[in-house]
Amino acid sequence: MxxxxxxxxxxIIAQVGSGKTTLTERLIDLSNxxxxxxxxxxxxxxTTEASPTNFETMNYCVTIVRNLNHRxxxxxxxxxxxxxxxxxxxxxxxxxxxxxxxSSFGQMREYVLLVYTLGVKQLIVAxxxxxxxxxxxxxDRFNNIKTEVSNFIVKVGFKPECVAFVPxxxxxxxxxxxxxxxxxxxxxxxxKREGGMITGKTILKALDAVIVPQQPIDKPLRLFVHDIxxxxxxxxxxxxxxxxxxxxxxxIVQFSPSNIIAKVQSIQMHHNSLDEARPGDTIGFHVKxxxxxxxxxxxxxxxxxxxxxxxxASFIAQIIVFNHPIEIRQGYTPVLxxxxxxxxxxxxxxxxxxDRRTNKTIETSPxxxxxxxxxxxxxxxxxxxxxxxxxxxxxxxxxxxxxxxxAVAVGIIKEVEKIKVPLxxxxxxxxxxx
Length: 434
Fold this sequence. Notes:
Blueprint: E1 6-14, H1 20-31, E2 53-56, E3 60-68, H2 74-81, E4 86-92, H3 97-102, H4 108-117, E5 123-128, H5 139-156, E6 164-167, E7 189-193, E8 196-200, H6 203-208, E9 222-231, E10 235-244, E11 252-256, E12 260-269, E13 272-273, E14 282-288, E15 300-302, E16 312-321, E17 328-329, E18 335-338, E19 341-355, E20 360-364, E21 368-369, E22 374-381, E23 398-403, E24 406-418, H7 424-433
Parallel strand pairs: 1-3, 1-4, 4-5, 5-6
Antiparallel strand pairs: 2-3, 7-8, 9-10, 9-15, 10-14, 11-12, 11-15, 12-13, 12-14, 16-22, 16-24, 17-21, 18-19, 18-23, 19-20, 19-22, 23-24
């Protein structure tokens, strides 16, 4: 039996009508050896399916964790964004379609800023619809779009020399898995890596060039709870994803912020029992002597004897406001989405404005924040939540701020003031029951 391929999680982001649905379908079909002239899904489709989709490359088993399109889906983007290793940005080469996507009314700028701030630092840009009548596989059109996108993403924080730009036609399979003969002018994309330069011509090769981060198994256990079930003849089953550390049967775990202590009876993934669950694993595990009512989505599971997660009293964060019609002032009370939790919060202090390009302070104690500005603020949760610093636990240290039914800011946590609760008595009491 061959070696199991490494898991690569990608997120596809695109303006509506850019060919996202067609490209996704063709990648899956080509991976399975299916070739056809006309895809059953067309560019005019508006995708609402949220289920992960899989296909394989030479190096990876690729999971598409979410297809984004409408603004209302920015809230949903938080969960897959924190799980993605790479973002695949699709832009249309068609006249006006690209220009509209890059305008202030377009969605592309917002999506790219969102995924970068939420920790997705690897990007592939597919310039689609090169076959369109007003494009005709034009080298000039490709180069102009590449230049404009490069100028934008460098302001966000991406390095264009580390981004593969690939001209494609998804509907004709051009430069997806095989090199197209319709664009002989396109010699290759080039990526800068620590060990040198990587080159290629297709989306497939660009995906194989993505670097998957190492699993943080040596860090303290952090698992965020997605769901809780009551299973007949078994009991309470918790579903969640491990971000750091290791979970094993018979471990004593703590669920925060409620500080409930429980024993892990068994672990399953894809209906198979596990002796050990590691970072990246989405699992279900049976816990003993805990009722369904005492656990909630957004809780953090940790090891009470090894740096357990604790409820946050307040935290310092750096945010970027990108979609707010009026000034934001001290006392602002939006909704904060972090990992699987969402709670009301209050901006209790505006500390300083930052020049995002230089990371230097340009104003201290500002009276207000406007769209486009980067600011360091102090936030107080108005409901119990566990968060961590972005430096120590990136997944648990980045968040989205929503108000008026839309995302208005994204941020990362720099410092956390935690509510410390002694747990020795709770651990001893539970252990004695066994």
